[in-house]
Amino acid sequence: MTPKELLEAAAKLPTVASLDEELSLIRGIRALDLADIAKDLASFTSLIELVQTSHAGNGIFEMGEAEEAQAVDFFQWLKSLEQKLGMPLTPYADGLDLTRAELAKRMPR
Predict the structure, then answer these.
(1) N or C: lower Cβ tally within 10 Å for the chain?
(2) Could you list the pLDDT tens digit for every one of the 109 residues in the chain?
(3) pLDDT score recorded for residue 9
(4) Distance CA 9, CA 66 (A)
């Protein structure tokens, strides 16, 4: 699947997807071929933004320990691609690196 094809499929999801849908999208993004990503950075960054928007609206509040690890790992993976692709990606993924503990400190109940 190419970034554009995945983006077209992801467009059918609600803006704020369920945590399961968000994690499924992350798995789909991570399965993309690096050469395809490099050819279509616009679709790739749009996919990251979809995850970020959904995560900020819902996922960050639903995640448990396992989901937290997947989100933080996805952020680190994006960071590792920055040099390979020659562009910053983490600005599109704001908040995906937040742990539940960091969120609790920022948003005490």
Answers:
(1) C
(2) 999 999 999 999 988 888 899 999 999 999 999 999 999 999 999 999 999 998 888 777 788 888 889 999 999 999 999 999 999 999 999 888 877 777 767 777 7
(3) 96
(4) 25
Q: Determine whether 27 is exposed, middle or buried from the number of CB atoms within 10 Å of its CB (0-12, 13-18, 19+).
A: exposed
Altogether, the residues listed in the chain come to a count of: 109
Q: Which of 63, 61, 51 is nearest to 15 (CA)?
A: 51
CA nearest to 88, candidates 80, 96, 100? 80
Give the pTM. 0.90
Q: How many other CB atoms are there within 10 angstroms of residue 29's CB atom? A: 22
